[in-house]
Design goal:
By secondary structure, this protein is an alpha/beta fold. The protein is built from five helices and six strands. The chain has helices at residues 9-40, 65-86, 94-104, 116-123, 169-186; strands spanning 47-50, 54-57, 90-91, 128-136, 141-150, 155-165. The relative contact order is 0.14.
């Protein structure tokens, strides 16, 4: 009979402990890989084209149109940035939207162009298009109008009006903030 070597009990415990650690590390690494693959498979938010905001000024006030042009540009940028920050939509860059408008729009108002907003969005491969405008009744009273359309179905999926007081950038941006908060809750 061959001599058997005796292995100390502490060595067996260390070996078992080492195998357990390796199994635990392997299990942890696999769970990370599964988590990463599940996260990577999450659907991307839909792409939205935010068209430049327009104004319908019925106030009869005399003044520089440049002031409203600057305010419209600012509110468009605010809405675009805040919608993207919610994570519900990816937003088409401003430059691409401008190019698509120049290629499609015959010079009419975007809010009333007989479907050209959908053609613009299609050029941009967007699933949604947002058309917004300010109705200015007077220096004191204004309304922010928002319409979001599904490009594939050509249906309006969101339409709201937000009354506000004041004809200044602060009032317009406050109305835009309320809209984005409402959009986040409604959809």
């Amino acid at each position: 009979m061959a001599d058997r070597q005796r292995v100390p009990v502490t060595a067996l415990i260390r070996c078992t402990f080492s195998v357990r650690n390796m199994l635990a590390v392997a299990f942890f690494a696999m769970s990370l890989c599964v988590g990463i693959s599940v996260h990577a498979a999450a659907p991307r938010p839909p792409l939205m084209a935010v068209l430049p905001f327009e104004i319908d000024d019925n106030s009869g006030e005399i003044g520089s149109a440049d002031r409203h042009t600057a305010m419209l540009s600012a509110v468009t940028t605010t809405v675009r940035n805040k919608i993207e920050a919610t994570g519900r939509y990816r937003v088409v860059p401003h430059e691409a939207v401008t190019q698509a408008i120049n290629a499609v729009n015959p010079g009419t108002y975007l809010r009333d162009c007989n479907g050209c907003e959908l053609d613009i969005a299609k050029r941009l491969n967007a699933q949604r298009v947002l058309v917004g405008w300010i109705f200015k009744m007077s220096t004191l009273i204004g309304t922010l109008h928002i319409r979001i359309e599904d490009v594939g179905t050509r249906r309006v999926v969101y339409r709201r009006d937000f009354d506000f007081r004041g004809d200044n950038e602060r009032a317009w941006n406050r109305a835009a903030d309320v809209f984005v908060r409402t959009l986040s809750k409604d959809q």
